Amino acid sequence: MRRSHERSWPNERFLVELSQPTQKIPTPAEWDMAVLRLLKTELPFSRGKLSLELEVEAKRRGIAFSSDAYLELWKKKQKLPRGDWAHIEKAALEISSHLGMLRPGGPPNKANKLRAEPLRTWVSCADRIQAIFFGQQAAQELTEGRLEIATGSLDIILSYKPDGVSMHLSPHDTGSALVYHASQMMTGGTVLQICEQCKSSFLSGGEARGGGKRRGDARFCSDRCRSQFHNEARRKAMRKAKL
Ligand SMILES: [Zn+2]
């Protein structure tokens, strides 16, 4: 029997595993790349980020949660145009070549026996990650109170050995691990910023960003954009001086 929520996605596309999977441990850079890629992806639907946006806007305008005005706001937000499925499909193909699938399940139909997952899983993971960083920005505008989201869950693992028992908290699958990683990045001081030169988003700051560490207040995504920006500013200043 199909579950009811599956009925609303009749032509949904799946990510399908075509070859024998191998075991690998992704590098921190690969986790970071996946987070940034999903942050930048336009999504066909949103739940987590949408409800957070709604909460922030209602707070700002002093609209009560149970009022008609809140319902109106919710309806208006639902109608906003959303991204095409093609964007998340492209992101899923790119990221899964580094991290694998997020939450692979059985085949999408009886014709094949390959493991697969609906693209909806990817949208929901990206939506959570977008909500995580949106909350960070939105909280700066709050004058009182707080925002709270339940963004993911961890399994409680008990490990029994002859010399005793230990307890571990562990993500159940790659999707949960990715949300956990994004949460750690954000609480560790990483912020999502827009490059002043090329206008693309980038992540900066945070303890976890080793190597080419960028400060939390960085204005440019790369050294190239920084020098381009300053060269253009200098040219502008020179033109002004000639007038
Ligand atoms: Zn740039």
The major pleated sheet works out as: 2 strands, antiparallel
How many β strands by DSSP? 6
In round numbers, the mean pLDDT is 87
Q: Tell me what portion of residues adopts beta-strand conformation.
A: 5-15%
Total number of domains: 2
Shape: globular
Helicity level, as a percent range?
40-55%
The unique ligands bound to this protein are: zinc ion
Q: Tell me the distance between the termini.
A: 77 Å
Secondary-structure content class: mainly alpha
What is the ordering of alpha helices and beta strands? HEHHHHEHEEHEEH
Low-confidence stretches: 1-7
| Number of helical stretches of at least 4 residues | 8
Radius of gyration: 22 Å
Spatial strand order of the main sheet = 1-2
Protein model, in words:
- By secondary structure, the protein is mostly helical.
- It has 2 domains: 12-46 and 82-142 and 160-187, no CATH class; 190-243, no CATH class.
- Helix content is 47%, strand content 12%.
- The protein is built from 8 helices and 6 strands.
- The protein has helices at 4-7, 28-40, 48-61, 68-79, 85-99, 119-139, 174-187, 223-242; strands at 14-16, 116-118, 155-161, 164-170, 191-194, 201-204.
- The strands form 3 sheets. The protein has a two-stranded antiparallel sheet. A two-stranded antiparallel sheet has the order 3-4. The protein has a two-stranded antiparallel sheet with strand order 5-6.
- A hairpin with a 2-residue loop joins strand 3 and strand 4 (164-170).
- The longest helix is centred in the middle third of the chain and has 21 residues, at 119-139.
- The protein starts with a helix and ends with a helix.
- The structure holds zinc ion (ZN).
